[in-house]
Amino acid sequence: MRHLFLTSALCTSLSLYPELVAAQSWEKKQLHEAVINSAANYTTVLRTAHDEVRKYITWRGWRTHLTEEEREQLSADILAAIAANEKVTQDLVPSLLQDRLDSYDVRFRYCDGKLLTYFGTPDFKHNMSAEQIAEAPILRAQRQNQRYTGRRLGVLEEGPDGMVMALARDPVTGGGQRRIVLDCLLEGEAGAERLEAGTLGYISNAPAKYGIAHVKRRRESETIACPDRQVGLGQTRRRYLSTPFNGQWDQIGDSYYDTSFGGDGNWTVWVDFCRDPVTILRRDVEVCDAVLRTATQEITLPGEGQAVYDYYLTEAKDPTDFTKTVWLPSDADGNFTPTAVGVLSKYSNCDNLEAEARVTPAVSTVTETDQRACSAGWTHGNRTYQRTVTTTTYTYSGMKPGWENGLSASDINVLSYGSWGLKGNSCRKWVSSTQMQRKNTDCSCQGTLRYQRAVITRGWDWQSNADQLNTTHGNWEHLSGSCEPAWKVERQGGSCRRSPPRGGGGNEERDNEDNDGDGYQDSIDLDDGDPNVGDRRDNGGNRGNDNGGDDKIVCTAMNAAYGFGSFRQAIWLRYARDHLTEFHQTGYHLIFLPLVRRAYGQDDRFARGLRKSLEHIMRERTADIRAEMQGSKRRKLGRFYRLTLEPLCYITGRLAGGGKVAGVEDVPVIAGRLNRNSQTLIGGQNA
Questions:
Q1: Contact present, 212 and 252 (Cβ < 8 Å)
Q2: Residue 168 Cα distances to 138, 147, 200, 385, angstroms
Q3: From CA 343, how far away is CA 355, in angstroms rounded?
Q4: Within 13 Å of residue 511, how many CA atoms lie on the same side as its CB?
Q5: 174 against 257, higher pLDDT
Q6: Residues near 377 by beta carbon (within 8 Å), at least 6 away in sequence
Q7: What is the dihedral of CA 200, 205, 211, 215, to 10 degrees?
Q8: Which residue has the higher pLDDT, 353 or 18?
Q9: Pairwise CA distance, residues 687 & 683, whole Å
Q10: How far out from the chain centre does Cα 101 lie?
Q11: Residues 573, 523 contacting (CB under 8 angstroms)
Q12: Buried b vs exposed e over 284-319: b needs ≥16 C-beta within 10 Å?
């Protein structure tokens, strides 16, 4: 019985063993997943804090409502907090969670444009190491069958050249980069502890937008003349121009020279080629009468003696080129003298010689000219400058050059230059411009007209001489506005700014007014407020013609024959100007000119009937045109005449090719003769 029980228990255990192993494996797997997730949370907290703080240092890739001054102050406060205690509070970076930062002991260090975020404690949950926490995001991505592409944390470790940060490795592929960590990040600010190997952190570039992070220095050099009382090739000196930049290499402020004591913005002599000047002796030998004396006698030898004078010359800077030297008269100590003064030498053997001899220099002056280019903006010509060059020549006798170890007593030329002065200036530029000039003109009765014209300026603009500019004014062109004639304003119950014409009169008298005095009646004047603007038919010609133009031959004939006003003619002209063409006028003249000649050239029954017919057509057509222009009821008969005659005139003028018809100018003469005959007849009857 006992054996049977043991056998049953063994069989039961063997049957349940696979399920027990699977349960233990599942429990271990779940525990491992929890550890990985907990480790990944460490990396998330560290990277999130790093990104938020970095954002407030670089100010890249995001927008804020803060002003430029507020952002600069906030960055300064954040960097000051990092330098003070390696902490950034939520007051400075609102997106940080203060409790989480404190619980994970997240700290920051900043130096040379690099931000280091690290954990201040080596103790982590589940006794995990820094390496395991750094690899946790990679393991979690692999368990999800994904490839980790995010940024990786690193662990500080000792390298051959110092401390490096070893980034997390892929457990499958291996590898892993190592980045050098700056000593200033390892050491921290004053009072901070040096980071040890095994510290888990994240480092990236964080160039500050505000504050000076870099200073570029550009060397400037120049060669100047030697100091006073020295000669040579001059002194080469240099200095540095400093340009400040922020961490993002944006220039901050203007470039400057550091001129403080010991600053590199001060000029410093780099190479010195200067020396003290040399003073040399020159002897001038002149012929004199030698005197030989013995104990008993004195013998004079004419022309056999020598008068020797010692002259001294000292080096000086050439006024035209300080790298060169010239020789100037001086004394034995090198002090310059206005003239060359020679001292009598012991080698002289003549009697009655002066103790000193002076060489009076010869002075000559010439004028030197120089042509220079014009300044910016002046395209032609040049500027001529002039200065005086004075040559001072010291002439020695030079009887025996090189005598007694002295140099040759040759001439010494000293040049001096005056200041350059402007003598002539032919600089000029060609000017070609077009500007629009505008003006407003009040109408004599009602309205305002606006005009513009082109003002064209061309010619040479001289810098110093009188300009040679030619200004041309174009014709005034109407832009906007219109004038209402006096008769129309008064008809509508209005009043004009000027007094009404005396003697009354109807519409025809008002239409004969000439408000601007340009010789054109207001009815046909394009601008009755501007005397420069007349009738566009002849561009200002035919001024003073009371008939208002001879193009409308029927109206002209009636006016000449009966003294009618130009009221109807004005309506015809306005309508023709806006609606008809040149071909209408040519056809009109070809058709009606023979009829007018017959109607107004004779006074028989047929002519009187024809005359009445033409005048009837004219009156009806005029009434219909006026009704159309005023928007009132149209005249049926006048409308019929227009629909019939206007196309006929156009076709006739088109076939004739347009142009002016000969004989139109004779119409006033013909009709005027009829008028005189009628007046004679009436006068005879009255008599």
A1: yes
A2: 8, 14, 10, 76
A3: 6
A4: 18
A5: 257
A6: 429
A7: 120
A8: 353
A9: 6
A10: 52
A11: yes
A12: bbbebebeeeeeeeeeeeeeebbbbbbbbbbbbbee
pLDDT digits over 134-190, tens only?
Answer: 888 888 887 777 777 777 888 898 888 888 888 887 766 666 678 888 888 888 887
Q: Which residue has the higher pLDDT, 152 or 486?
A: 152
Calculate mean pLDDT across residues 97-102: 85
- Please state, in angstroms and rounded to a whole number, the distance separating the CA atoms of residues 2 and 113: 82
Biggest CA–CA distance in the chain, Å, is 184
Tokens coding 593? 């000119």
What residue spans of 105-192 are helical by DSSP H? 130-143, 183-187
In Å, how far from its chain's centre is CA 391?
50
Tokens representing 296?
A: 């008993």
Residues ≥6 apart with Cβ < 8 Å to 173: none
Percent pLDDT > 90 in the chain is: 21
Amino acid found at 442: D
Element containing residue 673 per DSSP (H, E): helix 667-686
Q: Are 620 and 603 in contact (CB under 8 A)?
A: no
What residues does 102 pair with on adjacent strands? none
* Inter-CA distances, 325 with 215, 276, 332, 340, 361, Å: 42, 12, 19, 18, 19
Q: What angle do CA 69, 78, 197 make, to 5 degrees?
A: 150
Cβ distance 336 to 325 under 8 Å?
no
Residues β-bridged to residue 422: 385
Residues above pLDDT 70, as percent of the chain:
76
Q: What is the DSSP string of 289-326?
A: EEEEE-SS-EEEEEEEEEEEEEEEEEEEEETTEEEEEE
Q: List pLDDT tens digits, range 258-311.
A: 999 889 999 999 999 999 999 988 888 888 888 887 888 888 888 888 888 888
Helices (H) and strands (E) in the chain, counts: 13, 22
Nearest C-alpha neighbor of 444 from the set 509, 528, 513, 526: 528
Most confident by average pLDDT, 123-127, 313-317, 500-504: 313-317
Tell me the pLDDT of the chain averaged across its residues: 78
Q: Which has the closest alpha carbon to 570: 485, 479, 444, 452?
A: 485
Phi-psi group of 268: left, alpha or beta (phi > 0 → left; psi -120 to 50 → alpha; rest → beta) = beta
Q: For residue 124, what are its two tokens? A: 């982590």
In 383-464, DSSP assigns E strands to 383-394, 412-417, 421-425, 428-442, 448-462
Beta bridge partners of 244: 215
Measure the CA–CA gap between 251 and 215, rounded to whole angstroms. Answer: 9
Tokens standing for residue 1? 């019985």
d(CA 287, CA 304): 7
Tell me the C-alpha distance between 335 and 361, whole Å: 18
Q: In Å, what is the CA distance from 109 to each residue of 85, 183, 368, 535?
A: 9, 11, 70, 89
Q: Residue 24: what are its φ and ψ, rounded to 5°?
A: -65, -40
Tokens coding 393: 């020549």
Q: Work out the pLDDT band at 98, boundaries 50, 70, 90.
A: confident
* Cα–Cα distance measured from residue 209 to residue 55, given in angstroms and rounded to the nearest whole number: 10
DSSP string, 593-613: HHHHHHHHH--SHHHHHHHHH
pLDDT at residue number 401: 47
Its pTM stands at 0.47
Q: Are 543 and 520 in contact (CB under 8 A)?
A: yes
Which residue(s) pair with 309 in the sheet?
284, 344
